[in-house]
Design brief:
Elements: E1 14-15, E2 24-33, E3 37-44, E4 51-55, E5 61-67, E6 70-72, E7 86-92, E8 100-106, E9 113-117, E10 125-132, H1 140-148, E11 153-159, H2 176-192, E12 197-201, H3 213-220, E13 225-232, E14 243-247, H4 249-261, H5 263-269, H6 277-313, E15 322-324, E16 336-343, H7 347-354, H8 356-376, E17 391-393, H9 400-406, H10 411-417, E18 430-432
Parallel strand pairs: 2-6, 11-12, 11-13, 13-16, 14-15
Antiparallel strand pairs: 1-4, 2-3, 3-10, 4-5, 5-8, 7-8, 9-10, 14-16, 17-18
Helix pairs in contact: 2-8, 4-6, 6-8, 9-10
The protein binds zinc ion.
Length: 437
């Protein structure tokens, strides 16, 4: 039997005739995944000279970039790919001695767009490699169709601490991480039983998620609101009561500064539109501060709504939302708040926080506050925006008093809104739910 060895070897060689620059360096490699591409940036010591080719015969597919007479001053071992498209970036034996060969291992075959950029503001020479294709967990463009069909609002629920980080520990040995996970789960189930809302748990079990990663996870699922749940602690047992924290201006300025340094990330904010160089700084600042102002303002509003509900069921430590400089409250994409549900260091409150009944009450109050916020400030394209959130189809086992409690209204208000003469309701009956007071 004749054996035929077929070697499938796709080789595309592209060379650029740029005058040879001797002794160039790669100082840094940065990567920016986005919903529609991954951008890999090589920060160069001098104008880059390069050639590249594909190896597409087997998975992972490879894009090989050769830099002649170039030294790599960057440790690729520390490089952690956060793109679904680029699995890893590594070096390989260079074509010529004194050169550097960089291999990008890719999950899909893509046609790269490569351009070299000259020095600009804080940047020197760069080689920018754009790889088209979804590189984040969820494609934002795919959401647009959903938007048209009156989507649900997504509430990201962040149970504080977890795993090796217990959070604060009460005098009876209660771990904050356990209490807040129970409240977070109760809140998630209330939100998921609301036809206009869905919950996304940042951590659904006992493990740790990096602080900066928490808001990023929420952003990746396009959350409309971020609620972090904690329990307070103090060195003395006296302090007690709940409080809510929102993003402070100081943190915002820091975050804004950080954003402004990252032009590539800003390119995403700017929806891929590159403004003229002289306008860029001004436009960037304006756009970032606009989205920051919006997120901060609505975060404060949401916190005020939740605070009003918490006040009804538990003692408050602070009666107004407090401004904080906390890593979890840094998103410009959505309003965020951090709820301190009580002092776990106070023996009485520790006892309460341990009880399932009180956990349910706290979750209910947060849910009602969040719902009230979306009723007043419905995000575009949501069921809240089209008033469908105020319609309820009666399910088995529900009564007017159950619905009044769930939607934070009264039996009388539901009856009068629906012109009901009795309190008897039937499965399948559609009720208009009045806005909370
Ligand atoms: Zn905490």
């Amino acid at each position: 039997m004749q054996r035929l060895i077929t070697v499938l070897f796709t080789l595309v060689l592209v060379c650029f005739a740029v005058p040879a620059a001797a002794d160039n360096t790669i100082e840094n490699i940065r990567m920016w995944p986005s919903p529609d591409r991954t951008r890999v940036v090589f920060d160069m010591g001098d104008e880059p000279v390069f050639s590249y080719f594909h190896l597409n015969q087997s998975h992972p597919y490879r894009l090989v970039v050769d830099f002649p007479d170039t030294k790599l001053n960057f440790n690729l071992d520390q490089f952690d790919s956060n793109s679904l498209l680029v699995k890893t970036i590594r070096t390989s034996t260079p074509k010529d001695t004194g050169g550097t060969r960089i291999v990008l291992e890719l999950d899909k075959i893509v046609e790269p767009q490569i351009q070299s950029l000259g020095p600009q503001e804080n940047y020197g020479h760069r080689l920018v490699v754009d790889l088209p294709g979804t590189s984040l967990e969820r494609d934002r463009s795919a959401l647009r169709a959903e938007d048209l069909q009156e989507r649900k609002v997504t509430v990201a629920i962040d149970a504080g601490h977890g795993g090796e980080d217990p959070g604060s520990i009460g005098p009876r040995g209660t771990y904050e991480k356990d209490v807040v996970l129970k409240i977070a789960r109760a809140l998630a189930s209330m939100i998921n039983s609301d036809p206009a809302m869905q919950a996304y748990l940042i951590r659904s079990d006992d493990y740790y998620v990096d602080l900066n990663e928490r808001p990023r996870k929420a952003e990746r699922v396009d959350a409309d609101l971020f609620v972090s749940i904690h329990a307070d602690a103090f060195v003395t047992p006296q302090p007690r009561g709940a409080s809510i924290w929102v993003l402070s201006n100081r943190r915002a300025s820091t975050e804004m500064g950080r954003l402004l340094e990252n032009k590539e990330r800003l390119s995403d904010v700017l929806a891929g539109v590159e403004p003229a160089a002289d306008e860029q700084e001004f436009l960037n600042e304006t756009l970032v501060s606009m989205s920051m102002d919006h997120a901060m303002l609505s975060g404060y509003e949401a916190a005020t709504e939740v605070l009003a509900e918490l006040k009804r069921i538990t003692k408050m430590h602070k009666t107004k939302p407090q401004h904080a400089s906390l890593a979890v409250l840094t998103s410009t994409a959505m309003p965020s708040m951090l709820v301190e549900t009580g002092f776990i260091s106070n023996p009485g409150e520790e006892q309460l926080l341990r009880s399932n009944q009180h956990q349910q009450k706290l979750a209910r109050a947060i849910y009602q506050g969040v719902r009230g916020f979306f009723m007043r400030r419905p995000p575009d394209g949501t069921m809240f925006a089209s008033n469908r959130a105020s319609r309820h189809v009666v399910k088995s086992g529900e009564s007017l008093s159950i619905l009044a409690q769930r939607y934070n209204t009264s039996v009388t208000a539901i009856k009068s809104r629906n012109k009901l003469s009795s309190s008897v309701i039937q499965v399948g009956q559609v009720l208009e739910i009045p806005s909370p007071e």
